[in-house]
Amino acid sequence: MMNTYYKDRLGANECLAYEDLCRGIADHKKEINIRYTDDLGGVLKAINYDHPEFFYVNWLDRAYYSEGCGRMYVSLSYIYKEKEVAYLQAKMKEIAKNIAGISSFGKALCIHDWFVENIKYDHAGLEQVIRSPGMFSAAGPLSSQKAVCEGISKLACYIMREKGIDSAVIIGRSQDGTPHAWNMLNIDGKDVFADITYDIGLSADGIVRRNYFLLSRSEISKDHVFE
Description:
Distance between the termini: 19 Å
Strand content: 15-25%
Order of helices and strands: HEHEEHHEHEHEEEHHE
Largest sheet: 4 strands, antiparallel
Structural class: alpha+beta
Shape: globular
Low-confidence stretches: none
Radius of gyration: 18 Å
Number of strands: 9
């Protein structure tokens, strides 16, 4: 399953810490006791991209200290209060509910086109990561119908999973070296890629374009660099 795409790259100890953190975040705990890891940054990064449903975590604001005996504490802060989280979750589920399509291909196509028709790229948002970390979460596109690539990819992944499509957020770089995010999804047993952000830009004249919809890895690698 693609929801462990980044976890699958971690070592055994890191996977244990990953699982501890996921349980704590799901319970909205501010201090989470986890198994010790030398690579906390890698674990947090994996959870961030594997779990778009944890959109309420401020991944930039964290601290940790060792407890000894192979344990450590991680302190996290949250962007939204629990009532706000519930509201945003309901909004995301409502979007997914209204997505048409019967086959995986049909659902993926409708999800892609919903973004192109309803979300604009937020050029100013790139400068707001410190002031507005929510812009880089799955909730980012919901506030003003504008988003950066990370928020677009995370919300797309969330909706695809709600519709039963195995999906992941992929992080890497564009051809010019700019950090970038897009999606991998499994359609009829085949892993393919979609860069909805690029298609939003190409569709600025009101025509929905699907130049970056369901490409093979070799096709998308022509102007995307995987980490």
